[in-house]
Amino acid sequence: MIKVVLYGPESTGKTTLAKQLAKHYNTLWVPEFMREYLQKKWNSKKELVSKEDLIPIAKGQLKIENEISQHIENLLICDTNLLELKVYSEYYYDGFCPLEIKNEATQDNYSIYLLTYVDTPWEQDILRDRPNNRKEMFRIFEAELKKQNFPYQVLKGKEKERFENAVRIIDALLKKN
């Protein structure tokens, strides 16, 4: 099975692209569990993410990915994975990331990472907090991919251009498989 991860800083079009790609390839996509988890936490307690949330978020992301992958034969689109959680954890908590997350996040379980660049319009919401740090975050995300030696391609441009480039990349993977 080919597993594609949309990966990158907040508000760079990952969810939009995940939905478009899943529709184009008539497959399922894995949503970002962290967003759902943190929105529920905010709605019920008016609290944002804390270190104590990291393990439940990781477990939830893996659970939903495993459940959805049971219904897929050849292509799974993921709107994030644990490597993104690792990067954010280390960024927000001065290098801290639970060992369980680090171990799982650094497994080479994906065919390609599509790294979304920060040339999309910023969309404010309660869970997004770094509109002026997106270039810095992009560099951190890319550095992590290089450190892990994971295969990736950068997606830049407007929505249509990103989609077309992603399709070209995925089509090439499907031909090889």
UniProtKB/TrEMBL annotation:
Residues 3-162 form the NadR/Ttd14 AAA domain. GO terms for molecular function: ATP binding. The keyword Transcription regulation does not apply. Gene3D superfamilies: P-loop containing nucleotide triphosphate hydrolases (3.40.50.300). The keyword ATP-binding applies. It holds the Pfam family AAA_28. Keywords: ATP-binding, Nucleotide-binding. InterPro entries: NAD_biosynth-regulator, NadR/Ttd14_AAA_dom, P-loop_NTPase. PANTHER family: NADR_TTD14 AAA DOMAIN-CONTAINING PROTEIN, TRIFUNCTIONAL NAD BIOSYNTHESIS/REGULATOR PROTEIN NADR. This is ATP-binding protein.
